[in-house]
Specification:
By secondary structure, this protein is mainly α. It is about 80% helix and about 0% strand. The protein has helices at about 5-35, 40-65, 80-100, 110-145, 145-180, 190-225, 235-245, 250-260. Helix 1 (about 5-35) packs across helix 3 and helix 4 (about 110-145) runs antiparallel to helix 5 (about 145-180). The longest helix is centred in the last third of the chain and has 38 residues, at about 190-225. The chain is flat, with a radius of gyration of 43 Å.
Length: about 260
């Protein structure tokens, strides 16, 4: 590899970093599968384990195409890997047995806690994979290596999808840990919280509605007063005036009539 151009040598270096991380994650996922109990999580681990194996093969192939060789780190062989998986299954069985013990005996030892720790490890490994593939895309683009760019972007999408899955799964696992290890009296009830929140908001809504009704009444009163006609004279006054006008000679005729004997 010493005769390769500097750009290809650097790209092979970053591809080997990604290859090593894929191998490390592959072993971790196989061990974690033995502890996974939630169907959605276990199925996704199994799926990503297959993706991880494929990623390692594709990266190794691309390294050879560029003239390099994939760095093989001293990972446990198939027999040792089988022992790791068996230990994980045994650990899950012990955790299930402890679930019937008193609550204080479960702290930090239950299957929920172990699954959460595994998921956090997987999340960290996904970040370790995303970083080198992001680097590979940038370097390959600068070198005009479209094939490596295409490969790295394809793998990167799958790694980011797995990371997004774990981001949603970890809070669920944390809630499961609390449910298994923390008494109900020490956990906030969502229903109670919502009711308290609604009660706290009720006075504010009432005040707001009352203010709106008051404003509406004032506005209505203002419009009514502006449209109200001028005050009319009493009916008795109007009838007296009409009588005087209808009499002969008007008011003078009335006066004269009163003066007659």
């Amino acid at each position: 590899m010493t005769d390769l151009p500097a750009g290809a040598t650097k790209l092979i270096q970053y591809l080997n970093e990604a290859y090593s991380t894929e191998r490390r994650l592959q072993i971790a996922l196989q061990a974690h599968l033995g502890l996974a109990s939630r169907a959605t999580y276990k199925n996704r681990l199994r799926e990503h384990s297959s993706e991880t194996k494929r990623h390692a093969r594709e990266v190794s192939r691309r390294i050879k195409q560029l003239g390099g060789s994939a760095e093989v780190i001293d990972f446990p062989g198939p027999d040792a890997l089988g022992e790791v998986a068996q230990m994980a299954v045994a650990g899950a069985q012990r955790a299930a047995a402890l679930a019937q013990a008193p609550m204080h005996a479960l702290r930090g030892t239950g299957k929920e806690e172990k699954q959460l720790k595994n998921a956090k490890t997987e999340y960290a490994l996904e970040a370790e994979e995303i970083a080198p593939y992001t680097t590979i895309v940038a370097v390959a683009e600068a070198l005009g290596d479209g094939e490596t760019v295409k490969l790295a972007r394809s793998i990167l999408r799958e790694e980011e999808r797995m990371r997004s899955f774990l981001e949603k799964e970890i809070p669920r696992m944390a809630a499961a840990v609390l449910s298994a290890e923390v008494p109900r009296s020490q956990r906030a009830s969502r229903g109670r919280s919502r009711r308290r929140s609604s009660r706290a908001k009720a006075p504010a809504r009432s005040r707001s509605q009352a203010s709106t009704r008051t404003s509406a009444r004032r506005s209505s009163t203002g419009r009514s007063s502006s449209k109200r006609p001028a005050a009319r004279r009493p009916a008795s006054s109007r009838s007296s005036s009409a009588a005087r006008r209808s009499a002969p000679g008007g008011s003078r005729g009335v006066a004269a009539a009163g003066a007659r004997p």
